[in-house]
Specification:
five-stranded antiparallel beta sheet, alpha+beta, 12 strands
């Protein structure tokens, strides 16, 4: 999903929540929706152009920030309960059933009650038999990792990193286990890196739960997917039109079309190794603008592959 649709979905959910929490701080909104405070301010700025048809005085949403507190007015139509469609209801029902039957939850009484209410709401459609296979690689580690959320113990991992194509041994203080985009992640403090890290369960080659108690996790655990920072290296590449899909899979700083019809993408990356792996996939469909170090790494990797296949 591209960044515009992600933002639209966030704003549509954010407005009713803000109406229920008048005067909430910008920082708390950022934590609730897992974005930065600057992104919250940008979203609030967009709200000033949204409202009911007519778009005149009294039709547009009013959003203001005073003393770091957010107030939204003229958006009472968002306070009405959302009605889910049949497709949304069935998707929610199937996900709830899968969670109940996964064996991961020790107590699912509340979930079972919610399932019964959904089935009543959906009526006959809920009785349609559906066979699902939701198993994913790495989920066999869940039985060991799930109890660590409430009883943290240090975990020893043997982990394969695709960006570096290397296997390392890690001691991790676990914080949480969550599923994002169809993949399970263990998040915690990595003693080897001396920093927070996210580990995809399907890349864990060996796992051992030790008897050593781990410190309690922080109050706010960031999402496992990469979020760029100013300290990360910036990459600028040009891609041919058929490869412009890359722009929907990175957090872009800028996008423009060059004079020769290529698309110039600017983004940040946690490490140049990841950018090299992306360029290897794109082949002749991409060219590096900067940094020069990326060109050197790209040529070095290409040379190693060429030498491996004489």
């Amino acid at each position: 999903m591209n960044a515009t649709l992600v933002r639209l979905r966030r704003v549509l959910v954010m407005v009713p929540w803000l109406l229920e929490h008048p005067g909430v701080s910008v920082e708390e909104v950022a934590r609730r929706f897992e974005v930065t405070p600057n992104e919250v301010l940008d979203d609030l700025d967009v709200l000033g152009y949204c409202g009911l048809p007519g778009y005149g005085g009294g039709d547009l949403i009013e959003a203001s920030v005073s003393g770091g507190q957010v107030v939204v007015r003229m958006a009472e139509f968002f306070s009405r309960p959302l009605a889910i469609s049949m497709r949304e209801g069935l998707s929610l029902l199937l996900a709830a059933r899968a969670a109940r039957d996964s064996g991961v939850l020790a107590d699912f009484e509340a979930l079972s009650t919610a399932i019964e209410k959904l089935e009543t709401h959906l009526g006959a459609e809920a009785a349609v038999p559906v066979a699902m296979d939701l198993r994913t690689e790495g989920e066999d580690h869940l039985a060991q990792l799930w109890p660590l959320v409430s009883d943290p113990r240090v975990v020893n991992l043997r982990y394969w990193s695709p960006t570096r194509d290397e296997v390392t041994d890690r001691a991790v203080e676990p914080w949480t286990v969550r599923s994002v985009g169809g993949a399970w992640y263990l998040q915690g403090f990595c003693r080897r890196a001396q920093h927070q890290r996210s580990f995809r369960l399907d890349r864990i080659q060996a796992l051992e739960v030790t008897s050593e108690r781990a410190p309690a996790p922080p109050d706010h655990v960031p999402p496992p997917l990469y979020r760029p920072s100013d300290d990360d290296p910036q990459v600028v590449i040009d891609v041919q039109p058929h490869a412009a899909w890359v722009g929907d899979h990175v957090v872009l700083d800028d996008r423009e079309v060059t004079d020769d019809g290529w698309t110039r993408l600017s983004f940040r990356t946690a490490g140049l190794d990841w950018a090299v792996s992306l360029l290897m996939r794109l082949g002749r469909s991409a060219r590096v603008v900067r940094p020069p170090a990326l060109v050197d790494r790209w040529l070095e990797q290409a040379g190693a592959i060429r030498d491996a296949y004489p």
